[in-house]
UniProtKB/TrEMBL annotation:
Residue stretches making up the DUF7776 domain: 158-233
InterPro entries: DUF7776, HFX_2341-like_N
Top-rank taxon: Archaea
Protein name (database record): Aspartate kinase
Ranges where the HFX-2341-like N-terminal domain occurs: 2-157
Amino acid sequence: MQTHIVPVGFDYDRMIAPLIRDQFDVDRVILLEGTVGSEANVEYSRNIARKLEQDFQNLLGAETVREQLDDVYDYDAAFERAFDLINAELDRDDGADDAEVTPDGDAPADEREVWVNLCSMPRPVSFAFATAAHSIMVERQADRDRIHTYYTAPEKYLETELAEELRATRDLLRDLDEGTDEAVTDASVDPDRVADRLASTTDLLAEFDERGTTIGAKKIGDSHVIELPVASFQNVKPFEELVLFTLGEHGEFESVSELAETLAAELNEEYTDSFRSKVIYNVDRLGPGGKGYIEREEHGKSHRTSLSRTGQLWVRAHADEDRDYRDLA
């Protein structure tokens, strides 16, 4: 059984054609629609999603749901959404508990697989979903064969064909503009309208030839750059989890000792040298020389301690999980 998670951009064929042609057994599809951008872009993407919803249901018989992704440029939010979606689909109850286990002890043959399509949507979403999938593979070693990310190359790109058609239109408009008044009258075309369309078409083609399919660099938040961290989660022990969540809650500690005091208070434990050493050991394991979830900046005789970008993603992705740390000290 397969769930396909499909972030929807401006593509149609690459979202569904490979699944039909390669005869995938798709029983559930989650279509994610972006809601940021010009009104025309959002509406175009929404129309693509509507058509995909109908065709996934009619052509593949798949249960199809449409959900919104509020900000396609918010990498962290997209990562969290991907992490939650993939885990939820892996854990989706399809009656697999009652399925017959193979003689060699493998999981039931109808156990759900999750496929993530990376063809469309802006790059932050694609990278976030790919990285989240890989992180889950590391955390859930037994399920790594059930998680797939995939890409499909287009047979052709329409941008260049659209440009060629635009060139032909420009040439036609130029002929009309340079023709006699009688020719324009015969064509029932306003000469001023022909001149305006010729000018705008010529300008657009000049921009396409000079810059390609996009123009400029959009500022998102305070920067024109969206950092895409290389995050591949590792297994984290319960006490390490507590350290990470505490840093996530407080943001930063001026020293490891201050962090240790806070942890001791939360666990109702006496703050001793032994407990402090335990915290230092775990912070080292989570630091730059270990799992990379914690950053330590030298500050006088102490080290200012905070979460790295990957650590922030880990905390955000695991924030809703229930835990009991009373027996960790």
